[in-house]
Amino acid sequence: MTSINNAYAGLSGNYLFSEVARRVSAFRARNPETEVISLGIGDVSLPLIPSVIRALHKAVDEMACADTFRGYGPEQGYAFLREAIRRHDFLPRGVKLDADEIFISDGAKSDIGNFQELFGDDAVVAITDPVYPVYEDSNAMAGRAGVRENGRWSRIVYLPCTRANAFQPDLPDTAVDVVYLCSPNNPTGTVLDRASLTAWVNHAREHGSLILFDAAYEAFIRDDSLPRSIYEIPGADEVAVEFRSLSKTAGFTGLRCGYAVVPKKLTARTKDGRTLSLHDMWLRRQCTKYNGCPYIVQRAAEAVFQPGAEKELAAGLAVYRNNADLMLASFRRMGLSAFGGVHSPYIWLQTPDAMPSWDFFDLMLEKAAVVCTPGAGFGASGEGYARFTAFNSPENTKKALERLEKAL
Amino acid sequence: MTSINNAYAGLSGNYLFSEVARRVSAFRARNPETEVISLGIGDVSLPLIPSVIRALHKAVDEMACADTFRGYGPEQGYAFLREAIRRHDFLPRGVKLDADEIFISDGAKSDIGNFQELFGDDAVVAITDPVYPVYEDSNAMAGRAGVRENGRWSRIVYLPCTRANAFQPDLPDTAVDVVYLCSPNNPTGTVLDRASLTAWVNHAREHGSLILFDAAYEAFIRDDSLPRSIYEIPGADEVAVEFRSLSKTAGFTGLRCGYAVVPKKLTARTKDGRTLSLHDMWLRRQCTKYNGCPYIVQRAAEAVFQPGAEKELAAGLAVYRNNADLMLASFRRMGLSAFGGVHSPYIWLQTPDAMPSWDFFDLMLEKAAVVCTPGAGFGASGEGYARFTAFNSPENTKKALERLEKAL
Q1: Residue B41 has what pLDDT?
Q2: Which residues of chain A from 42 to 71 reach within 8 Å of chain B, CB to CB?
Q3: Domain A13-42+310-407: assigned CATH number
Q4: Is the ipTM of this complex over 0.90?
Q5: A210/B contact by beta carbon, under 8 A
Q6: Would you state the CATH architecture of domain B14-43+310-407?
């Protein structure tokens, strides 16, 4: 029989959101009349903005004519989109990138899941706890995580984010090669300010480690003095890769487009002491195993960065922000401790009376038909918390909060 | 400095098609007035068929309304498309699959590049020579290929396909865990008949190995008695994964959609002797590192399998087939030995007087401004050959052949 990747045998069987979906399906089967409201998975609910729809129709029409048809595109993405991103997302923040340091993809999840392929088996990886599961699982699948015992991998360094440290990870006290940071954070909804991020960049520069910075939620930052990109911190282009997504910014969860910034200054070392460029390695990886984001999707993404789109996007973001405000206010009125939700679509709710998070999940589902995501699914330090998202409609959000108030 | 994946240091710097593109760019810069005709990379030239365009516009409109908007879809693909594929591509050939054995993706290149993640480091991989480079490179990147010397990896088993064996690989005489087969073949354009494929399936069953069957070009098979799917061979569902693509079938190279068939009967063994389901492992892999093919692209793919599309697709295929016929006839008239091209869009041309294939490439480019793909780029046994594709327009194909006739 074919010898397989042993690391898979150590993975827990169910990906967090699949288990949530399973329990919701079971509830629905038992309660076919009940309308379930999900404040669980971070999917958007608003349709694509008119600018994007127009760009899609136009690009589709191009695909219908031999003269304008586009087949294989560059694996790294079309220059028109890389350039639009450089000018829109970075230049106004004082960040100077070359357009070819930006790699277009089908989303941040793929990029974040795949990027670890560039590291050695012996690379020591640090993640926060709680954490977006993809960072942990993708390293475990690669056999880099060691053995799983009591819900933790032996070779991963966990950086607890708890109420005690205001959900801000402390710098690691052991040597690590790679650190995953997410700000605004999924799941806690908190944000790293300039001072914290500077400390992380300096630490990485001192210790020769690499930061994988997940900025998928940067559009939700309300305070313009907070960094939106890690490259706003001097020297970060020598120690950090940044992942971005149009999923939450522009409702692209079903359209699929994101990008990774891999500066040319980034290097890493082979076991025999040679220095390789991570930019070149990522280019080689993408050219070998990926064929680029669809042309029509890249045209849709380009439309997001054009002048007309700004107002349309702002209107959508305002809806989600108002939901978050409403949730924070309601939870506090209920006497609950709620974190995040200001610069983020996520609210990190402490369960009442330290109730285990899957019990809280089941209680919310059974008594209020409201879906949240149990904090324990994001890591040991997520126990006693639940993640709520601001992505449902204002009507459903309001209804869900009324039901929760009654149930608790 | 971050420890990196050492295997990347052993890879050759340039992916074949990038090197071709580089030389073509340099030629264009030197000869700005000359019209270059590419019979090189396997990209289609015909626009998307009207059925697909209509489906795309309709799906885009759905994304514009809150009621019909789709966010995250299932990572494995929407049921409507999996079911359409099951009914259209397999049932009529007598192949019974469950729809959930079909995993929709953004293309066969991604699936083929990623699937090796499921194997152990010690898995012995066999590939044909010449070969589609992704099979080799993706295993090399995973550190499974050993050391590269004289253009070959020490731990990969190469199965030469030469004129002597009519470009049909012989069964391996050493134990292998995984065999990559491609039929109709890229680059040789030849096809495995039922007897050969049966021998491969039986060999895999006897030796407990796994076949990764790349059927990206099955639409080009003209003889209905030839197998289009490996599952037409009894017992193949216990030893084979099949990869398919809409790129060549329906011109989706720029739209990005393909699928992998991973039967539930497939198993593999961990080092400590446990048996795992490859279907479950692939599901876990996809759910962790992938977020699904865009909804609008899946609706476009669905349209390919609906009754109205058949005629439109056939018209496009006929254009490419006529090109292949014309090329075969021309090459033979020039006194050259040409293979493939009957059940495939690829023609495998033996260079005159055993000219090295990159020299032949340069000669064709300089003297005829025609781009082919040098056989040596596909492996050692490709030396002395060049791959020509039938995907250009009839006019350009004719013009390129006239130029070649003059140049040779």
Answers
A1: 78
A2: 43-48, 50, 53, 56-57, 60-61, 63-66, 69-71
A3: 3.90.1150.10
A4: yes
A5: yes
A6: Alpha-Beta Complex (3.90)
